[in-house]
Write a structure and sequence with these properties.
Blueprint: H1 6-36, E1 42-43, E2 45-50, E3 57-61, E4 66-69, E5 73-76, E6 81-82, E7 86-93, E8 101-105, E9 108-110, E10 116-124, E11 132-133, E12 139-144, E13 149-155, E14 162-164, E15 168-169, E16 174-179, E17 185-190, E18 195-201, E19 208-210, E20 214-215, E21 224-225, E22 231-236, E23 241-247, E24 254-256, E25 260-261, E26 266-274, E27 278-285, E28 290-296, E29 303-305, E30 309-310, E31 315-320, E32 326-331, E33 336-342, E34 349-351, E35 355-356, E36 361-366, E37 372-377, E38 382-388, E39 395-397, E40 401-402, E41 407-412, E42 418-423, E43 428-434, E44 441-448, E45 453-461, E46 464-471, E47 476-482, E48 489-491, E49 495-496
Parallel strand pairs: 2-10
Antiparallel strand pairs: 1-6, 2-5, 3-4, 3-7, 7-9, 8-10, 11-12, 12-13, 13-14, 13-15, 16-17, 17-18, 18-19, 18-20, 21-22, 22-23, 23-24, 23-25, 26-27, 27-28, 28-29, 28-30, 31-32, 32-33, 33-34, 33-35, 36-37, 37-38, 38-39, 38-40, 41-42, 42-43, 43-44, 45-46, 46-47, 47-48, 47-49
Length: 502
């Protein structure tokens, strides 16, 4: 045996201690790795939220846990799930801000010895829609986003009052009803079930009879029917496509054609007709900040893509003037209106000079004469006023006027004399007279509505003009008669809808 000095013994002891710690650490890591891949180990479930405007979203996992989400980004549930067990993430509470609707992709599955990171929650802000009136002014319809029904009404032809009929089932989260130009058929885009509900309209009572629903892409927008009533289109926010359909002229049934690609998050389709040339379609893409341009085949309705054009930040819709010469897009984040001329041979868009709007302009409305344009500014609570150059389509700003809180749309009555804005935040309707020379909005007044009115629909029947506002918070429709001289609104009896009419 070799004798060791005290110093050597001390060095050997330190070395042995270090070796023991190293072996212990390696062993612990091995145990953890082994544990992490063994049956019965628990793993977290999570993913990503995008498009959320504010807090209020609550997700639910089948473990019984709820998870409140207040902003975009990564999330996970606190309660882990055992390997081999099933998980299912659903939306428990939709966010109240802007009536956003969130949907879950890759939300269910079985834990396979690894955490789940790929649950995707997409939140969209549907463009608000109000009461849809058939072209003859006889019937009215509202899509109820939270109870998945369509409310049905007949319009009293003397008083304009709404008489409640029998509601019909739709798909999951319908948020608009479109009636074809001849008033024969109705369609509802179902945001969460990715379908379009199809109905025939009883020409005596306005009752809806459901036909066979058709599939769309992911998260379809409102259905757009071309002016001839032959074709229908839906912009699919979730998969960046436009669905194309032909309409059976006897039954209203939709037959799917070939979907076409759009930009990112297309929110709506606008169609214009150029006489002696044909029909063209425009899809506004609110996340890629572009407008897709298509020509429409007059026989099949098929879309052929042309050159897309840029907007500014977050456009939600395209408005075309009544003569199909000019187009306008309100850009929600960059606070400008982009201006385009429409080529009268090809339908192509050529961008002109953008003009400033208020804060968060949501939409542009052009009056029936095509002389004036108005932008509803959601955050600055006012209406921007413009005159339209009849040669170039350029907008010249006039004096903006105050509205209530959070206006989405300006509605101009068919005579072009009066304008209305539903103020979602202040629960009232702003009423204006339009100066026929300058387009200025003058003599402003307000009238009460229900809770969170989103827009005003005006209809004309032989006995006069009437206005309707769907109130998403109080689940009813405000009914008004329009004074033929002043445009003033006189409230009638409100009628109930389903939950969250849009």
């Amino acid at each position: 045996m070799v004798a060791l000095s005290v110093g050597k013994k001390r060095e050997l002891g330190v070395l042995s201690s270090m070796l023991a710690k190293t072996i212990g650490a390696v062993g612990l890591m091995a145990i953890l790795v082994s544990c992490g891949s063994s049956p019965g180990y628990n793993y977290t479930v999570g993913g990503t939220v995008s498009g959320l405007a504010d807090n209020g979203l609550v997700l639910h996992n089948n473990t019984g846990e709820d998870r409140s989400i207040s902003a975009d980004g990564a999330f996970s549930f606190a309660t882990p799930v055992s390997a081999g067990a099933a998980y299912a993430v659903t939306v428990k509470t939709q966010p109240p801000v802007l009536s956003q609707i969130c949907t879950v992709s890759n939300g269910s599955g079985t834990i396979t010895n690894a955490p789940v990171y790929n649950v995707y929650v997409s939140c969209v802000t549907p463009p608000p829609h109000s009461v849809t009136v058939d072209p003859a002014g006889r019937f009215a319809y509202v899509a109820n986003t939270r109870d998945n029904t369509i409310s049905v009404y007949t319009i009293d032809q003397t008083t304009g009052a709404l008489i409640t009929g029998t509601a019909v089932a739709a798909g999951t989260t319908p948020y608009s009803v479109t009636v074809d130009p001849l008033g024969r058929f109705a369609y509802a885009a179902n945001l969460a079930s990715n379908t379009i509900s199809v109905y025939t309209i009883n020409q005596t009572t306005g009752a809806l009879t459901a036909g066979t629903a058709v599939a769309t892409g992911t998260a379809p927008s409102p259905v757009t029917v071309d002016p001839s009533g032959q074709f229908a289109y839906a912009a699919n926010r979730g998969d960046n496509t436009i669905s194309v359909y032909t309409i059976d002229q006897t039954t209203g049934a939709l037959t799917a054609g070939t979907a076409v690609t759009a930009g990112t998050s297309p929110s709506s389709v606008t169609i214009t007709v150029i006489p002696s040339v044909g029909e063209f379609a425009y899809a506004v893409n609110n996340n890629s900040n572009t407008i897709s341009v298509y020509s429409i085949d007059p026989t099949t309705g098929a879309l052929t893509e042309g050159a897309a054009v840029y907007t500014r930040t977050n456009p939600y819709s395209v408005t075309v003037d009544p003569y199909g010469r000019f187009a306008y897009a309100a850009n929600l984040v960059s606070n400008v209106i982009t201006v385009y001329t429409i080529d009268q041979t090809t339908g192509a868009l050529t961008q002109g000079t953008s003009v400033a709007a208020g804060t968060s302009p949501w939409s542009v409305t052009v009056d029936p004469s095509g002389k004036f344009a108005y932008a509803a500014n959601l955050a600055s609570n006012n209406i921007s006023v413009y005159t339209i150059n009849q040669t170039t389509g350029a907008l010249t700003a006039g004096t903006a006027v105050a509205a209530g809180t959070n206006p989405y749309f300006v509605t101009v009555d068919p005579s072009g004399q009066f304008a209305y804005a539903a103020n979602t935040g202040s629960n009232n309707i702003s009423v204006y007279t339009i100066d026929q020379t300058t387009g200025a909005l003058i003599n402003p007044t307000t009238v009460d509505a229900g809770t969170s009115p989103s827009s005003v629909t005006v209809t004309v029947i032989p006995s006069g003009k009437f206005a309707y506002a769907a109130n998403t918070g109080s689940n009813n429709i405000s009914v008004y008669t329009i004074d033929q001289t002043t445009g003033a609104l006189t409230a009638g009896t409100a009628v109930a809808t389903g939950t969250n009419p849009y």
